[in-house]
């Protein structure tokens, strides 16, 4: 069953309030005066246009939609065939077609997603967030819960969540890809595996562990956007490490010491970079 209704006042459902970017996006995509369909049926259904889901445990295929919002307790399977913004509920499964898609994870439960469209934008919520982005030029941001994201589309950007744990698996990507650990001073934890491309990792705050790939990877640290601790596993002669804004030179080197884990480089802003397995310094004698 479905009915047509109109947004009154642009009220944001509670589960999207305060979520990473979701509240502002909801207000933008569902402004006051927007006409949309409310789906309250069950089972398998096909619909089109802006949609609000008000029933659980349904399988819904949506075409021609600008936005879909699941305002229920969740458990729905939502498939999109055109460019759509999807606001997930707990335990939803989102399957996005070849068009650019925007997905916001839920505040609890586990959101599962697949996004094959290029230029997609995917953001985790406070709940679990697990899925794969295979479209090129996608942007993925971890949530405040546990986010596990597999990235295979080239030229994508993956960013650690502002808190919680973000896992990024690029091992099946030929890249190049870019990872930002915590560029805005957040405290999230990041674990990432790079792929075969020439990937770039921009170190930020928080704690991160990065496994280098088989490509020529670059690990970059920028004064004012770093401050955390980063452990790099598998760093080798094909990779590069760079520092911007610190003023380092051949006669002004960062502090280094070799510990039980490997070579530890300490920057002037307190950032630590550990090259796991290195039994020698790479900058100073």
What would you note in describing this structure?
The chain is mainly beta and 285 residues long. The protein has one helix at 22-29; strands at residues 2-6, 35-39, 43-48, 51-53, 58-63, 67-70, 77-80, 84-87, 93-96, 101-104, 110-115, 121-123, 128-133, 139-141, 146-151, 157-159, 165-169, 178-180, 189-193, 200-203, 207-211, 218-222, 229-233, 240-244, 255-258, 262-266, 272-276. It has a 14-stranded mixed β-sheet, with no helix packed on it. The protein has a 13-stranded mixed β-sheet with strand order 1-2-4-6-8-10-12-14-16-18-20-22-24, covered by helices on one side. Strand 26 and strand 27 form a beta hairpin. The longest helix is centred in the N-terminal third of the chain and has 8 residues, at 22-29. The protein is elongated. The termini are far apart.
Give me some keywords for this one.
mainly beta; 27 strands; disordered N terminus
Largest sheet: 14 strands, mixed
Strand content is: 35-45%
Q: How far from one another are the termini?
A: 74 Å
Count of alpha/pi helices: 1
Average predicted local confidence, pLDDT: 87
What would you call the structural class?
Answer: mainly beta
User: How many β-strand stretches?
Assistant: 27
Give me the Rg, rounded: 21 Å
Give the SSE string.
EHEEEEEEEEEEEEEEEEEEEEEEEEEE
**Unreliable sequence segments:** 1-11
Helix-residue proportion: under 10%
Described by the principal axes of the CA atoms, the overall outline is: elongated
> Reading side by side through the largest sheet, how are the strands ordered?
3-5-7-9-11-13-15-17-19-21-23-27-26-25
């Amino acid at each position: 069953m479905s009915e047509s209704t109109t947004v009154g006042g642009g009220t944001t459902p509670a589960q999207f309030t305060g979520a990473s970017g979701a509240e502002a996006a909801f207000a933008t995509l569902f402004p006051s005066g927007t006409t949309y369909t409310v789906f309250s049926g069950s089972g398998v259904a096909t619909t089109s246009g802006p949609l609000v889901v008000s029933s659980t445990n349904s399988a819904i295929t949506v075409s021609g939609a600008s936005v879909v919002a699941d305002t229920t307790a969740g458990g729905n399977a939502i498939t999109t065939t055109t460019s759509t913004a999807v606001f997930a509920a707990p335990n939803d499964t989102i399957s996005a077609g070849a068009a650019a898609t925007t997905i916001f994870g839920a505040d609890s439960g586990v959101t599962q997603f697949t996004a094959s469209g290029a230029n997609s934008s995917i953001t985790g919520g406070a709940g679990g967030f697990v899925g794969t982005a295979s479209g090129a030029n996608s942007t993925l941001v971890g949530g405040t819960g546990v986010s596990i994201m597999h990235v295979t589309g080239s030229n994508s950007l993956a960013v650690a969540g502002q808190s919680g744990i973000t896992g990024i698996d690029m091992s099946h990507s030929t890249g190049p890809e870019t990872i930002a650990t915590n560029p805005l001073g957040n405290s999230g934890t990041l674990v990432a595996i790079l792929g075969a491309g020439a990937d770039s990792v921009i170190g930020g705050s928080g704690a991160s562990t990065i496994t280098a790939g088989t490509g020529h990877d670059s690990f970059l640290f920028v004064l004012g956007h770093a401050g955390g601790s980063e452990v790099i596993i598998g760093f080798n002669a094909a990779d590069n490490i760079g520092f911007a804004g610190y003023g380092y030179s051949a006669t002004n080197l960062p502090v280094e010491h070799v510990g039980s884990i490997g070579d530890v480089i300490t920057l002037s802003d307190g950032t630590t970079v550990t090259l796991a397995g290195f039994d020698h310094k790479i900058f100073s004698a």
